[in-house]
Amino acid sequence: EDPSLERHFKGHRDAVTSVDFSRAKKQIVSGSMDSSLMIWSMKPQMRAYRFVGHKDAVLCVQFSPSGHLVASGSRDKTVRLWIPSIKGESTVFKAHTATVRSVHFSSDGQSLVTASDDKTVKVWTVHRQKFLFSLSQHINWVRCARFSPDGRLIVSSSDDKTVKLWDKTSRECIHSFCEHGGFVNHVDFHPSGNCIAAGGTDSTVKLWDVRMNRLLQHYQGNSVVNSLSFHPSGNYLVTASSDSTLKILDLLEGRLLYTLHGHQGPATCVAFSRDGDFFASGGSDEQVMVWKTNFDTDYCDVVKAQKYGSSVDGTHGTGVEMDCGIHHKKTKTQDSSRTHEQQDEENSLANTLEHILGQLDVLTQTVSILEQRLTLTEDKLKECLENQQKILQNKTN
Questions:
Q1: pLDDT for the residue 90
Q2: pLDDT at residue 156, as a whole number
Q3: Residues 249 and 387 in one domain
Q4: CB of 106 within 8 A of CB of 92?
Q5: Measuring CA to CA, which residue among 177, 245, 162, 249 is closest to residue 208?
Q6: Neighbour-count burial of 195, counting CB atoms closer than 10 A to its CB (0-12 exposed, 13-18 middle, 19+ buried)
Q7: What is the distance between the alpha carbons of residues 40 and 56, in angstroms, rounded to a whole number?
Q8: Are residues 371 and 255 located together in one domain of the fold?
Q9: In this structure, are 218 and 365 located in the same domain?
Q10: Has residue 308 been placed in a domain?
């Protein structure tokens, strides 16, 4: 069954720049050139929340892994961390000296990586937004930065036509991929962490193995690639292009699987839900669209990657095996040693832990909000005292 358009959301007053699903698939966040974020509910008839605070276009948004926080980056040079509730409270910090193009949480939710037009990539703690370090070898705007699933690596893409791979511990650039012929708009890690995909203004999508630093696949399209997202299985990739289309690539067979039309004007962003059942897209038409994936449920049954023949639009693939981490289904024999009771107990503990971590995120964020308010109050009090002193001085004079 082909992917199908399930819902579309209207509410933004300018182009949508970024979309992301919450972990439980209950909410979608979108950022826009209209300087706002919107939180949309997947439940019918539920109202959307509009979050206002940024003073210029919001270019990137992402839910934290727990779903209890949302990060946003803006042309106003700041990053905000929001509690996605009806109050829409947030803390703000000046992250860069120019437009913030990208925000991304580490998989443990403890760190945030940001990318900017000031040509740097910066890493911060989520709690109290403490600056940790900066990566600064790009020589043009940095469009996108992402943590690897294990948090050990960072990948970044830039208008200097390179994709750079960084070691988070040593803070050194391990490798620069220079095969793109234009600005590299978006980059992300494969769910296995063993390869990366990048798309850009040269209308191509390229996949590299980060262990061998070799090109695995090359897809030649007809239009600028603005955004891409891996399916959680690692077997598919969806792209958003300036020709208004979304394209789904089959990475096992190295071919274009679907071309989807829905947006009027450039499709600017796209993201799979955490379980891959849905994907959301945004466009210059101010709309957020939600699509049902409808992939064959046996997509995880492939045991071995196939050799590639031709890839998108008749251009030839590299003829290498895609061995960077296809997710396989567990066999029954693997599962038979564990009882349902054990699995239920483990799931219950994991859910409890996730809930506690989520509540900790909210508590820490609330403390940060209160601290910022106290600082503002202190500043106002100081200002009032200074004004009173000036008035007294003027009177005595």
A1: 92
A2: 98
A3: no
A4: no
A5: 177
A6: buried
A7: 21
A8: no
A9: no
A10: no
Residues 141 and 280 in one domain: yes
Which one, of 247, 272, 280, lies nearest residue 261 by Cα?
247
Q: What is the DSSP string of 217-271?
A: EEEE-SS-EEEEEE-TTSSEEEEEETTSEEEEEETTTTEEEEEEE--SS-EEEEE
342 Cβ contact partners less than 8 Å away, ≥ 6 residues apart? none
pLDDT value at position 58?
A: 98
Q: How far apart are CA 115 and CA 113, in angstroms?
A: 7
Specify the CATH number for the domain of residue 259.
2.130.10.10
> Do 283 and 366 fall into the same domain?
no
Residue type, 136: S
The two tokens of residue 79 are 């990053």
* Alpha-carbon gap, residue 97 to 114, rounded angstroms: 12
Helix (H/G/I), strand (E/B), else coil: 383? helix
Instruction: List CB contacts of 221: < 8 A, sequence separation 6 or more.
Output: 203, 204, 205, 239, 241, 247, 312, 313
Q: Retrieve residue 250's tokens.
A: 């089959």
Mean pLDDT per 10-residue run, the chain (397 residues)?
Answer: 93 98 92 97 89 97 95 97 89 96 96 98 94 97 98 98 97 96 98 97 97 95 97 97 97 95 97 96 98 74 33 39 48 44 71 71 73 71 80 78
Tokens linked to 95: 């992250």
| Full residue range of the structural domain in which residue 286 is found | 4-295
| Last-in-domain residue among 267, 295, 323 | 295
* pLDDT for 384: 81
* Gap between the Cα atoms of 194 and 312, Å rounded: 22
Q: How many domains does the chain have?
A: 2
| pLDDT for position 386 | 79
**Sequence-ordered alpha helix ranges (H) in 99-141:** none
Torsion of CA 337, 343, 349, 351, to 10 degrees: 140
User: What six digits make up the tokens of 337?
Assistant: 């040693």
Are residues 172 and 109 part of one domain?
yes
Structure tokens, 395: 């009177």
* Sheet with strand 255-261: strands edge to edge: 225-230, 236-241, 245-250, 255-261
